[in-house]
Automatic annotation (TrEMBL):
Compartments it resides in: Cell membrane
UniProt similarity note: Belongs to the fasciclin-like AGP family.
Pfam families for the chain: Fasciclin (PF02469)
Protein's UniProt name: FAS1 domain-containing protein
Domain FAS1, residue spans: 56-200
Signal peptide: 1-29
Coiled coil segments of this chain: none
Biased composition (Basic and acidic residues): 218-229
Organism: Phaseolus vulgaris
Membrane topology: Lipid-anchor; GPI-anchor
Keywords linked to the UniProt accession: Cell membrane, Glycoprotein, GPI-anchor, Lipoprotein, Membrane, Signal
GO CC list: plasma membrane; side of membrane
Region (Disordered): 211-240
Transmembrane region(s): none
Length: 263
């Protein structure tokens, strides 16, 4: 009996089916790898930038920005009153008011007037333009005359009188010059700067000061010595007078005797 080998196709078909089945089973069993998770980014609080504080008030900067106050700026710096104003605004609560004459106001002064003032008088002149409190335009009519300035307390020589009709017009007088308040140069409810059409001239510059009392005259050395050495009393004076009379009588008697003998 002859045994014949089965056809190749009949042997490989079942093998192919098994291989396909195994491959599909393995593919289904393997799941795709999960995508890596990105690490969480830590959140940080954002701190807002600090708000810059407003710069301190600088009177020179204010006047330069306004323009037309070159002479006033020079006087404020020469007398150091500009530093005084800035310091007062930082250390006091009442504020300040400055009457600011522009360059035209200074040019109307008598030629050489500013140069004739000494350092003390220049300081007094600038202080006379300063009120030690903040005054708004609408409150000038509430002030009592004479208005006190930073120049001093003498009401006769440093008097400043202000009249106002509710802020519509403000007029000032020093006894030497009449001044009209112009526009507002600057105000921040602590410092008020008002332009004026003339320089405020105090009477102190034009009224003669009373002369200093003259020193008591010294007694001469001779008088002092005589007064010190003198020990005479009224009785001594009377005795000296009597002796003098007796001497005169003796002189007369001698004269009569001489006349008698000559006869």
């Amino acid at each position: 009996m002859v045994i014949m080998n089965p056809p190749l196709f009949s042997l490989t078909l079942p093998l192919l089916i098994i291989l396909l089945f195994s491959h599909s089973t393995i593919s289904l069993a393997q799941s795709p790898a999960a995508a890596p998770t990105a690490p969480a980014t830590p959140t940080t609080a954002i701190t807002p930038a600090p708000v810059p504080s407003s710069p301190p008030t600088d009177i020179i900067r204010i006047l330069k920005k306004a323009g037309g106050f070159t002479t006033l700026i020079r006087l404020l710096q020469a007398t150091q009153v500009s530093n005084q104003i800035n310091s007062q605004l930082l250390t006091t609560n009442g504020g300040l008011t400055l009457f600011a004459p522009n360059d035209n106001a200074f040019s109307s002064l008598k030629p050489g007037f500013l140069n004739s003032l000494n350092d003390q008088q220049k300081n007094e002149l600038i202080q006379f333009h300063l009120l030690p409190t903040f005054v708004s335009v609408s409150n000038f009519d509430t002030l009592s005359n004479p208005v006190r300035t930073q120049a001093g307390e003498n009401p006769d020589r440093l008097a400043l009188n202000i009249t106002s009709s509710g802020g519509n017009q403000v007029n000032m007088t020093t006894g030497i010059v009449n001044v009209t308040l112009g526009g507002t140069v600057y105000t921040d409810h602590q410092l008020a700067v008002y332009q004026v059409d003339k320089v405020l001239l105090p009477r102190d510059f034009f009224v003669a000061k009373p002369p200093a009392p003259a020193p008591a005259p010294e007694k001469s050395k001779g008088s002092k010595k005589k007064s010190a050495d003198s020990t005479e009393t009224p009785a001594d004076d009377a005795e000296s007078a009597a002796i003098s009379v007796k001497q005169q009588h003796v002189t007369w008697a001698a004269a009569l005797l001489v006349a008698a003998f000559s006869w």
